[in-house]
């Protein structure tokens, strides 16, 4: 039986093995080589550590901003995955994310095969999915819940199209609980499906999709207005509202979009930061979407509706980093683009496979070009280019740093520099340097090129101040690492 399945799906298995190796080389090597950070992997590491010990997470790495990690983003994935901490240690969330991406690729295969009954065509769709820039950008930067949620979307749409109600509801719920803004996205996914059913006069299915849509929107409001404020130490203020170009809160944003639609459309394309340094970032994102096959969205209003909240939360944002194609801020486009494109290609009668191969080639080449050079700010080139020799090592002895970190007693309260925080987060007290709180240990990766929030000069001045204060002993010092303990 297993042999028969392997023979039937041999090309899909080959695709999964090849891209699985690439994705592992991107994500796991970044972590081993200290290219993951306190924000955001360290936050999740400390959360699963607490959950695995049957207690709520007190969000040590985000102190003093939050008392509970769920007041930052309401995500239940770390809670569900936390038992695996005992098996996979500091790679737990990265393995979960890696597995989810491969699982998402299988979901694409299943959806496209369902609509086409063509295995080669479905396999090409999976290759296309794995070639889109958004996956590599996401893997280059830690773990994020929305990456996993995006990978459940193809499965939801697959089971929904099959009219397997219970299974489709299961994946819909998994999207909801990933993060509060993913609940908003889920509502628009339901809205897109409802629009299609309304056009086709599919009244029974319209009732189901409308119920999903309403449920998702109500869940979003409940989490944003009740749950997060009740867990927050910020007087109920949601700290992730960053859309001041349209209003001071979500209500004002919605009202201003309705009252000033032309201005709202202009902001989707305009650099509203006031700084010309950020010119071209939004244009680059639209180019990336088109080259990946996003042009097909215009033929399917239901899928176009599904990307509306993703596009809005990107382009209306105050922070230019979120306008672009770097990090995890584009992952939600990936499954919708592929499903829309292959729905379009499936409708072609002539030269379907040839045109599909061309589209895969364009997507792959454009992703490579964006890896080599991009306009989007804060691009982590060494983290993303898995094929470059620099990705596979650092300018210091990585293994030695791991060995020295392992000598820090678990009982110490550590303030750790960003790249060290994920590796030291499995303890009761862990802070993100330069915040020290009541730390009695400071761990600094002096060989790290990025000294944020310091520059090279102020970073060294801070070290000199600590050493000359008379409050700290040198616990360990290597060419790459400095660990201090309080006297």
Number of helices: 21
| SSE succession | HHHHHHHHHHHHHHHHHHHHEEEHEE
Distance between the termini: 65 Å
- The low-pLDDT segments are none
Biggest pleated-sheet summary? 5 strands, mixed
Structure report:
- The chain has 487 residues and is mainly alpha-helical.
- It has 2 domains: 2-34 and 73-240 and 271-384, no CATH class; 398-486, no CATH class.
- Helix content is 58%, strand content 4%.
- The protein has helices at 2-8, 10-32, 38-52, 77-81, 85-88, 92-116, 119-131, 133-139, 145-161, 165-176, 180-200, 203-231, 250-259, 261-267, 281-291, 301-315, 333-346, 352-372, 381-384, 398-405, 456-468, and strands spanning 414-416, 430-432, 441-444, 472-477, 482-486.
- The chain has a 5-stranded mixed beta sheet with strand order 2-1-3-5-4, with helices on both faces.
- Strand 4 and strand 5 form a beta hairpin.
- Helix 9 runs parallel beside helix 17 and helix 11 runs antiparallel to helix 16 (301-315).
- It starts with a helix and ends with a strand.
- The mean pLDDT is 94.
């Amino acid at each position: 039986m297993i042999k028969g399945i392997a023979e039937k799906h041999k090309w899909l298995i080959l695709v999964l093995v090849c891209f699985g190796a690439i994705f592992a080389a991107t994500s796991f090597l970044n972590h081993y080589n200290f290219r993951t950070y306190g924000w955001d992997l360290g936050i999740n590491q400390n959360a699963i550590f607490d959950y695995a010990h049957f207690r709520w997470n007190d969000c040590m790495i985000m102190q003093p901003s939050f008392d509970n990690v769920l007041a930052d983003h309401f995500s239940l994935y770390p809670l569900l995955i936390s038992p695996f901490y005992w098996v996979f240690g500091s790679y737990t969330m990265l393995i979960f994310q890696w597995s989810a991406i491969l699982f998402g690729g299988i979901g694409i295969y299943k959806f496209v095969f369902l609509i086409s009954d063509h295995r080669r065509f479905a396999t090409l769709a999976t290759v296309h999915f794995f070639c889109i820039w958004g996956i590599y950008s996401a893997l280059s930067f830690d773990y994020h819940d929305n990456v996993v949620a995006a990978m459940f979307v193809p499965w939801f749409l697959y089971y929904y199209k099959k009219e397997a109600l219970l299974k489709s509801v299961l994946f819909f719920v998994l999207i909801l609980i990933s993060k509060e803004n993913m609940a908003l996205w889920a509502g628009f996914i339901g809205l897109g499906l409802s629009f299609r059913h309304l056009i086709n006069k599919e009244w029974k299915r319209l009732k189901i999709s409308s119920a999903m849509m309403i449920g998702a929107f109500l869940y979003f409001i409940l989490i944003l207005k009740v749950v997060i404020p009740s867990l927050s130490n910020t007087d109920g203020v949601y700290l992730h509202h960053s859309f001041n170009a349209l209003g001071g809160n979500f209500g004002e944003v919605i009202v201003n979009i309705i009252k000033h639609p032309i201005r709202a459309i202009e902001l989707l394309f305009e650099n509203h930061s006031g700084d010309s340094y950020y010119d071209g970032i939004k244009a680059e994102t639209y180019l990336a979407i088109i080259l990946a096959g996003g042009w097909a969205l215009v033929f399917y209003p239901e899928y176009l509706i599904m990307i509306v909240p993703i596009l809005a939360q990107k382009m209306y944002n105050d922070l230019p980093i979120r306008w672009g194609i770097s990090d995890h801020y584009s992952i939600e486009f990936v499954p919708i683009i592929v499903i829309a494109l292959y729905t379009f290609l499936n409708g072609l009668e002539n030269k379907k496979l040839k045109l599909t191969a061309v589209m895969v080639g364009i997507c792959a080449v454009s992703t490579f070009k964006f890896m080599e050079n991009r306009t989007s700010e804060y691009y982590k080139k060494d983290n993303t280019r898995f094929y470059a020799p620099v990705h596979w090592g650092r300018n210091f002895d990585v293994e030695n740093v791991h060995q020295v970190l392992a000598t820090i007693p678990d009982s110490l309260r550590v303030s750790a520099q960003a790249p060290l925080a994920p590796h030291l987060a499995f303890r009761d007290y862990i802070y993100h340097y330069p915040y020290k709180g009541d730390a009695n240990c400071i761990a600094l990766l002096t060989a790290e090129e990025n000294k944020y929030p310091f520059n090279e000069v102020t970073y060294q001045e801070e070290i000199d101040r600590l050493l000359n204060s008379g409050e700290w002993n040198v616990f360990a010092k290597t060419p790459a690492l400095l660990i201090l303990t309080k006297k």
